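User: Hey, quick favor. My workstation is busy. Could you predict this chain's structure for me?
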Amino acid sequence: MAAREAGKEAKEEQTHFHNVITAFQQYGPYTLAGNNRRRKDLFTLSREDQVLLDKLSYKKKLAEVDDAILANAAFLNQIVVNPEIFGRDPEDEDNDVGGKPEEASSGAENTDAHSYESHSHSHEHDHTHSHSHGAHSHTSPSRANTRRKYRPTDFDMDKVRSTLKQFVRDWSEEGKEERDASYEPIKKALLDHFSDIPMEERHNFRVLVPGAGLGRLAYDVAKLGFSCQGNEFSHYMLLSSFFILNRTQEVHEHTIYPYVHSFSNVPNRAVLLKSVQIPDVLPGDLPPESNFSLVAGDFEEVYGGEHAADAGPHEPPAGPWDAILTCFFIDTAKNIVNYLRIIHRILAPGGVWINLGPLLWHFESNTTSDPSIELDLEEVKALAAEIGLEIKNERTIDTTYVNNKDGMLAYTYHAAFWAATKKL
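Assistant: No problem, here it is.
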């Protein structure tokens, strides 16, 4: 019975993985069709109105948006041309439903490749904070007739568009101001907590970053000299972080156009068509002794097991963590009690939990019948105290998330920040 259930979950996960790849591949046709809708709308207007819009070069703008979409599509197709984050071609996994979490191939040609490990999960939920909030085929001919072609939904495409904005936030000069507002306070608190540890000894201290997204915070922590492991659940994020971390050869190697998907709240054409170069740093440029990895899987499943804190050195959740950094993460919980309980359990004595983020509960009013426990900020802090975490150095930090800084609309979070230690 257990083996059958495991096989079913593995099959569901594999299907979802294929669907995500298809969403990346279909971004171009899907988004071009949306832009073509604007052309059709233009021709429903009177000739007089069309002439007026011609004087504004409206049709030229639509053509320029088409070109930007095609550039984005070419970039996204590179991400999924060899989706190796689980160590093998996804087509080969149809008959492999068991086994332990394993380190994925990082590519033999990249000597600075970053380690990826996988942990099975079967359902995806949103790790991004949003306020709307031809392609390479990976299906072999022998299986093309047995697997129905997946048609990505609006939800899928919103995920892909959000991924482009995540690249801006984490891996561009454009996103530095927003990134610094969130990451710098966390890094400073980490350094303050371990201020008595010399730089050359930081690699002995293990830092966990749940909800790592595209991996920049985890990379920055490894750059500081700590041993760092990121954990991420979303296949959209995992595919993209693997690509940027392990398939990038130079700074500004890729150009994307993240703002072409909506014409609303745009002050001018230059903002709509603004290009962004990524990455702003070379991800492989880490200290030789650095230990940096990303683990795929649900935070509760990977780190919440009864023996997670006592696991062997080669297992993803191995041993207690000297620091746990949560940035825009704790509100992804269905049950915040369990999130905090896990953090308390796997945090080493003398370690620190550093948190920054809002409380945009991701499963509030969900349509999937998932449970959702939604606490206010004071309740979250009181719960942490009850579980055995002592919050210190708390303050409010105003920050945005995947915001177009040149647009006419911005949402600002009054994010809660704190450093907490385990009560002894």
